[in-house]
Design goal:
22 strands, 504 residues, Rossmann fold, 18 helices, 6-stranded mixed β-sheet, alpha/beta
Length: 504
């Protein structure tokens, strides 16, 4: 049973370079409670928790723990206040032992020369390992453990510091389902022991499973706290995006008529995964490809873009037969492709945002024959992309790998939009991004289509297909087995057909 509020944050303000990020946020959580924290990109979740964890200093406001106001100016002050932060990117030392990582802030010493007492260090570490249920030797090198086991070491470290407030930041992002179950058992055990736990996630199913309450931030403000037992997913989404769920998907431009020109037409595409795929795409149309994993949706996209080999078939661009066979040829013919794996195939993560954005259009921004980029023209395009696609970053030189999932996806979208393509293929465009970023991405896609772009959208989410597509093709076993106009499609029809229902 949760007790009275153990942590109270009142009227916290924080600005960076004159931009107010936290606008008087108040927040409270009880001991013996798991309190979820939700919000879209740039909502202020991480900033608020970084203030609490001592990574940032608040501009104004109060933080009270167990009825006493505390001043947190750095991470050591947070540690002394009993606050531990389990970061998404774990803050541990791979080359050190498990025991050294756990006891790093409180290593036991012995003798007049205060040498480290290895025996006691290992004994103490073993005690904390037992508390989190991790059965490894304290002398094991940390780098030999899995990510899930390293996370348990991080929690054991927090217990060694006698932390009463534990902040978990997207803790399941790198875990399997089984590892997630183990983590949840640890969190429940910590809760039963009276810990005050703050759980940051964009996965609403996790929030409902593990949290007692959930607070939603939007644009640096607390817009609501709900009891998860009484709340619904629709309520959470509405709070995050700032409008009712029925307004979640934007109003699409009118579907192109039968007389609208065909921008793309494919006939009888065949390879190891495709068994004669044929369809057409009209100017200003969003065409959905729906089906189960392995149905051939992504394989169709990859074949059109020239990433996968085609044994036979024909591709027409604006009525002209073309031979693609490579991404370079596809791009030359006005086709762009946002892959389902943006981190491996969509971005160069170690490269800054500016270069990721302009990489496909170097020929347009370079001096012909001179081999160097016209920097003024490049920065003009980059600035326009930041503004148009609402990319939230410290600036164009920020490394792409440090962006949130939603902002990474916006960079990839804007990169392909810069190429002035005729056809944009989107494979799971909102996978792994929070609902706020999803809504923004939907708006961007709609805006691009209203300006004449044609889109093929692949998604495993029925709601995304129904809300964002003029027409939907259903695939199974490498074939198109059904077609629906938006007005006729329902979730039951889509799922039933791809699960083996009657072909339409």
């Amino acid at each position: 049973m949760a007790n009275m509020d153990y942590l109270v944050i009142e009227d916290i303000h924080k600005s960076f370079y004159g931009v107010e990020v936290l606008k008087g946020v108040s927040f409270s959580a009880a001991s013996g409670e798991v309190h979820g924290l939700l919000g879209g990109n740039g909502a202020g979740k991480s900033t608020l928790m970084n203030v609490l964890g001592g990574l940032y200093t608040k501009d104004s406001g109060r933080i009270c723990i167990n009825g006493q106001e505390v001043q947190i100016h750095d991470t050591k002050a947070a540690e002394r206040a009993g606050i531990a932060f389990i970061h998404q990117e774990l803050k541990l030392f791979d080359l050190r032992s498990v025991a050294e990582n756990i006891m790093i802030s409180n290593l036991p010493v012995k003798g007049p020369f205060r040498l480290i007492d290895d025996k006691k260090k290992n004994e103490m570490a073993k005690k904390y390992l037992d508390e989190v249920g991790l059965n490894v030797e304290p002398t094991t090198r940390l780098g030999e453990l899995s990510i899930a086991e390293q996370q348990q070491v991080e929690i054991a470290k927090a217990l060694s510091l006698d932390a009463k407030i534990l902040i978990f930041d997207e803790p399941t992002s790198s875990l399997t389902n089984r590892e997630t179950r183990i983590l949840f058992e640890i969190i429940r055990k910590l809760k039963a022991g009276g810990a005050c736990i703050i759980y940051i996630s964009h996965k609403s199913d996790e929030i409902f499973e593990i949290c007692d309450k959930v607070t939603v931030l939007r644009n640096g403000e607390n817009v609501g706290t709900l009891d998860t037992k009484a709340a619904t997913n629709d309520e959470l989404v509405s709070l995050i995006i700032g409008r009712k769920l029925e307004q979640y998907f934007p109003q699409l431009p009118p579907a192109p008529g039968e007389d609208a020109p065909k921008v793309l037409e494919v006939k009888d595409l065949v390879n190891r995964k495709l068994a004669g795929v044929s369809f057409s795409l009209r100017k200003g149309e969003i065409l959905g490809l729906f089906g189960l994993v392995g149905a051939g949706r992504s394989e169709t996209a990859r074949a059109i873009f020239g990433l996968d080999y085609l044994a036979s078939g024909e591709i027409y661009i604006e009525g002209n037969k073309v031979k693609l066979g490579s991404p370079h040829r596809a791009m030359k013919n006005g086709i762009s492709f946002l892959t389902e794996n943006r981190r491996e195939e969509g971005l160069v993560l170690k490269m800054d945002i500016r270069r990721n954005l302009t990489f496909p259009i170097l020929d347009r921004i370079s001096v012909p024959g001179a081999g160097y980029v016209r920097r003024k023209k490049e920065m003009g395009l980059v600035k326009d992309a930041f503004s148009r696609f609402l990319i939230k970053a410290t600036g164009p030189e920020q490394r792409s790998g440090t962006l949130s999932g939603g902002n990474q996806q916006k960079v990839v979208l804007s990169k392909w939009f810069m190429t002035e393509s005729k056809v944009l293929i989107l494979d799971e465009p909102t996978r792994g991004v929070d609902v706020g970023a999803k809504a923004e991405i939907y708006e961007l896609i709609t805006e691009m289509v209203s300006k004449g772009l044609s889109v093929i959208m692949i998604s495993c989410e029925e709601s995304e297909m129904l809300g964002m597509c003029h027409r939907i093709l259903v695939m199974r076993d490498g074939e198109i087995i059904g077609e629906f106009n938006r007005e006729d499609a329902t979730q039951e029809k889509l799922v039933g057909l791809c699960m083996g229902g009657k072909t339409v």
